[in-house]
Design goal:
Keywords: Signal. It comes from Nitrosomonas eutropha. It holds the Pfam family Sel1. This protein is mainly alpha-helical. It has a single domain, classed as Serine Threonine Protein Phosphatase 5, Tetratricopeptide repeat (Alpha Horseshoe), CATH 1.25.40. The protein has ten helices and six strands. The strands form three sheets. The chain has a two-stranded antiparallel sheet with strand order 1-4. It has a two-stranded antiparallel sheet with strand order 2-3. Strand 5 and strand 6 form a beta hairpin. Helix 3 crosses helix 4, helix 5 packs across helix 6 and helix 9 runs antiparallel to helix 10. The longest helix is centred in the C-terminal third of the chain and has 18 residues. It is globular, with a radius of gyration of 19 Å.
Length: 232
């Protein structure tokens, strides 16, 4: 069981399966397709685990799945321990440290010494170190930064490469992202069949976003196959 959970809010992209203009991407039959944009960090439950739970119930769940949070260490001590492991080459620690820099849990300063609310450049550096070791979550996180252009120059082609590496290792958010990317043709040639393939892989693992995306794609395909006189 992972001891780190999601950090970033999801990016929502509306997409149709048919033609789209260069300035606007609209949803076919009002179907919305979701691109997950979440990197990982310690101390927070994923949004899908929070649903329907009170704060007390969330705290109890944290104790069950995040036992390292009960280690008695201060945030500063935990950060120093994590950095020590990261500097020694531990990919899991490198990914966690990158997440702390991205979220602002690790305090950084600019050239003038002013504190930064978050440090995506430092985050990208740590994600890169872990990604180079084949760490799937770090590959996903670094891919997200390349997709959005945070901490690194925006490069959607590079993002696709990283998402693919993570997805091939079973990272379900990367699989869902690739589905959306192929559906929209962002950084790749638009390919609905590949989009469906990646959505199916994530959906088979129970990813709710991928399941909804599959439903949206199939609804659009079904509607496009109807004779024009039958469409409402």
């Amino acid at each position: 069981m992972k001891t780190i959970a999601v950090l970033l809010a999801a990016l929502l992209l509306a997409a149709g399966c048919g033609n789209k203009s260069s300035t606007e991407k609209t949803a076919t039959n009002e179907a919305e397709v979701t691109l997950m944009g979440e990197s990982t960090t310690a101390g927070e439950l994923p949004s899908f685990l929070k649903e329907g739970l009170s704060e007390k119930e969330q705290d109890e769940l944290k104790k069950k799945i995040m036992p390292t949070l009960d280690d008695g260490l201060t945030p500063e001590q935990r950060f120093l321990n994590l950095r020590k492991k990261a500097e020694a080459g531990d990919a899991e620690a490198q990914n966690g440290l990158g997440s702390m820099y991205f979220s602002g849990e690790a305090v950084s300063h600019d050239a003038q010494g002013n504190p930064l609310s978050k440090d995506p450049e430092a985050a990208a550096g740590w994600f890169y170190r872990a990604a180079e070791q084949g760490h799937a979550d770090a590959q996903f996180n670094l891919g997200l930064l390349y997709f959005t252009g945070e901490g690194v120059p925006q490069d959607k082609t590079k993002a696709v490469e990283l998402f693919t590496k993570a997805a091939e290792q079973g990272n379900i958010d990367a699989q869902n992202n690739l589905g959306v990317i192929y559906l929209l043709g962002e950084g790749v040639e638009q390919n609905t069949n590949k989009a469906v393939e990646w959505f199916e892989k994530a959906a088979e693992q129970g990813n709710e976003e991928a399941i909804k995306n599959l439903e949206a794609v199939r609804a659009s395909q079904k509607a496009s196959q109807k004779p024009s006189g039958e469409q409402k």
